[in-house]
Amino acid sequence: MTTNSSPQIWLYDTTLRDGTQCEGLSVSIEDKLRIAKRLDQLGIPFIEGGWPGANPKDVQFFWQLQEDPLKQSEIVAFCSTRRPHTVAAAEPMLQAILTAGSRWVTIFGKSWDLHVTESLKTTLEENLAMIRDTIEYFRSHGRRVIYDAEHWFDGYKHNRDYALQTLEAAIAAGAEWLVLCDTNGGTLPHEVSESVQTVICQKLMTKDGGQKTIPQIGIHTHNDCDMAVANALAAVMAGATMVQGTINGYGERCGNANLCSLIPNLQLKMGYSCIGEHQLTQLTEASRFVSEVVNLAPDEHAPFVGRSAFAHKGGVHVSAVERNPLTYEHIQPEQVGNRRRIVISEQSGLSNVLAKARTFGIELDKQTPQARQILQRLKQLESQGYQFEAAEASFALLMYEALGARQEFFEVKGFQVHCDLVEGKEASSALATVKVAVNGQNILEAAEGNGPVAALDTALRKALVNFYPQLASFELTDYKVRILDGHAGTAAKTRALVESGNGYQRWTTIGVSTNILAASYQAVVEGLEYGLLLHSQAEAALKT
Amino acid sequence: MTTNSSPQIWLYDTTLRDGTQCEGLSVSIEDKLRIAKRLDQLGIPFIEGGWPGANPKDVQFFWQLQEDPLKQSEIVAFCSTRRPHTVAAAEPMLQAILTAGSRWVTIFGKSWDLHVTESLKTTLEENLAMIRDTIEYFRSHGRRVIYDAEHWFDGYKHNRDYALQTLEAAIAAGAEWLVLCDTNGGTLPHEVSESVQTVICQKLMTKDGGQKTIPQIGIHTHNDCDMAVANALAAVMAGATMVQGTINGYGERCGNANLCSLIPNLQLKMGYSCIGEHQLTQLTEASRFVSEVVNLAPDEHAPFVGRSAFAHKGGVHVSAVERNPLTYEHIQPEQVGNRRRIVISEQSGLSNVLAKARTFGIELDKQTPQARQILQRLKQLESQGYQFEAAEASFALLMYEALGARQEFFEVKGFQVHCDLVEGKEASSALATVKVAVNGQNILEAAEGNGPVAALDTALRKALVNFYPQLASFELTDYKVRILDGHAGTAAKTRALVESGNGYQRWTTIGVSTNILAASYQAVVEGLEYGLLLHSQAEAALKT
């Protein structure tokens, strides 16, 4: 248990920058905004948003956050030191960072002499000047600076004196944090420990008369030796107070330190304070949310947050764990928002359902028969491949249905799709026909589209808009498809997620089928239905 | 580099026993035999084969190994101590172990008082007798004994004196190894370190007159805190000389310590001797072999052996790593049998393209006009939403095309798809028609499927298999779909990735279109084409 007196470790998330270097991961600006908001809710103090200037997407991302800022977290812009033999004020790259408008800026510079001469092709002296100038420039514009010492541990191993000089340059220029980076991921915990201790013990860490702010130490690790999390913990034990990492350990090559492992280790095992206890119970959901948004299959065996992390197989084991969870569980799964799973007979997650219902303003308790009914339906659907973590609107519809309160706006009778593609012709046509009933009246509509799902969506809207003119303001803002059992190839089950919006709210719905069109269509239909529900709830609220 | 003078660490593989507890993993006897042989080749000294008696499959496995024994490795039978208040010689469970015929036996017993009273429901005294009796029984039958101290670290934390007594019982009875197990996986490296040191420093570790064999210490860890590998290394640094783990870290919940990470860390980073240098270069292949046999997708981001472990993005980065690999690689990938991969992506420069071409055996230089042509085509396709970092086979086809060397196996003339879904009816039917030409001959084929892509795939194979019988061995092993510009909703562009295999190789192809079916189809078609290309290259190689 953490208390107010637990020493604080500052979390620094770089999912949106270093995490996006992960092979196979790509995100839109919308995706980045959704993830940033979720990290904000999770209580991560620093969120590295990207490198505006190097990447046009990141410029827009920072602008959008100026319009609609995060509640608690500091969004941080990331940038290298100025180029050799230039003037910081004249560097467009640095201008772009100022324009991004974040209070905090992370500057990374070279610690390893080899990189200065081989990659930057400049002198060791000039590199020190680059670090100093860049940090001073941002300080003079009122920014607070975190200094990332790239390749710190390799530099320290090869030329310790020079590596320490780079930190001195950063301190002199006014950096508030020095983050030691194991950029190549080749360092082991005992080496991290020794190096962090040395940095902290060096006189450069002692006050020189009370004028200068004494920077704190951070750690940034990669998983190339399977040591990212262990190295970060070793650094903390040696005195580091900031830990950089990514959700689910996403990152280049073998990934970055996984915050989903770091946070519970620091907070539950080592007694540090990172995020609120209640926020910690959202960790599993946050992990799955991010994996849905970036469209990568979650690691079922992930420590703490994986689906198998608290799975127990039959026999003695199960009865022992039910009598005394301590016998086979190193923490209580609920502390990180995960749950115990008895692999033979699935165990209840009734409290999850109740908690979820509460988020939709529905008060249920364990005695309500519908609560068990919802749980059963949920389990049944989940075994079919549904996953409601990122599809809360579909889950809400499911709850209303169980409570007998699902409004019927329309009924879908069926659909047909026809696609025709002639090789070499760019435009393939898709034709969709839908049949729906509204208030007992059957409507048949057809539409064309540049793809089968677009054609279906258009046909459905044509059929419904006369009854529900508010449909005109709905738009589909995102659409994702994932194949569930990859082994089955194209005959596998498909999960479609559709995000819809009405200009001021957004919601996500889900469909599952072996037929990719049926799955998509189901999600589109529920998206429209939920939008109509929100509209009618808003109207009802206005009347009262 | 390890030399004969490097201290030896004894590897103990439990993939075939603890590894098979992994959710989603199941193996036949044949699978187990194939894996055991591969581990033998890899030079693993101890291979835990299973628990004969508890599992009928394991009985047969040990019998088959008696017929056809391993070359170097010791196969080890695993078993618990006798039940409370029984006589070892009268226990059928222990008889089955003798029948299995292995020279070495691993006996696991309880170290944690809570488990003795809660799970075994017996007295602390009786548990000590169970450990002693069982080991003595096997010793009296000429077996050599490894003692696994289950729940060691929890027992040590809760009742240190009793935990140490259980080890004393094992030593007195003649165990040659004491393996400290973190069964629940909740321990951190500094705790492992302290506990191992204590055990080694205890007087029970000192000679009592030269009569008794002094056991050595082993470590068995689980990954529930993301610490399995770090904990094993911490134990080794504290004096343990045996490390237990599994290939790819397979195991219950979050898995066991991953030998594919442990071995290179111990051998390349810490200077211990585990397996031969040449065997180490087979590590990546062994990892992938085991994942194929157990039919689990390999972790692309796995340290050392993952496909992304030595992947490089971005121009400057790539030219730096080619000039001096040390700058961005913590070891040489070849040391573990992996290879550097130049990832082709948005940031690609000409040097990436050239490096990539080389990996396909195509020598280009900066002056070759086709090199620039490939780069241009690449950038053009990427701006349309193609992404080749995960679709190397499509990139290879693109290169062959630019070089005028793309073989035409077949030509697709067009396709049609028809889907019909009646709401409430579970099975939706999809009908696909394709028209292809092979050697100037047109073929029209139709097929049904449980989804439109499956129907297309089936129709295409029907059309081609008479010309290319090798198609019958191709399978689609994974299929992923991603919507590119989420803003456009269902009218957005779709990117499909298809992974195909022929039993010993895998390759990935890509398709992009606003029509999800056209994108999928394109990837399926290129997947078949690339498979045919591999086949014809293999045939050509055989002829020369």
From TrEMBL, chains A, B:
Its EC number is 2.3.3.21. CDD domains: DRE_TIM_LeuA3. Pathway: Amino-acid biosynthesis; L-isoleucine biosynthesis; 2-oxobutanoate from pyruvate: step 1/3. One of its GO terms (biological process) is L-leucine biosynthetic process. PROSITE patterns: AIPM_HOMOCIT_SYNTH_1 (PS00815), PYR_CT (PS50991). It is an enzyme of class 2 (transferase). One of its GO terms (molecular function) is (R)-citramalate synthase activity. Pfam families: HCS_D2, HMGL-like, LeuA_dimer. It catalyses: pyruvate + acetyl-CoA + H2O = (3R)-citramalate + CoA + H(+). It comes from the Bacteria. Keywords: Amino-acid biosynthesis, Branched-chain amino acid biosynthesis, Isoleucine biosynthesis, Transferase. Residues 9-281 form the Pyruvate carboxyltransferase domain. NCBIfam families: citramal_synth (TIGR00977). Belongs to the alpha-IPM synthase/homocitrate synthase family. This is Citramalate synthase. The lineage of its organism: Bacteria, Bacillati, Cyanobacteriota, Cyanophyceae, Nostocales.
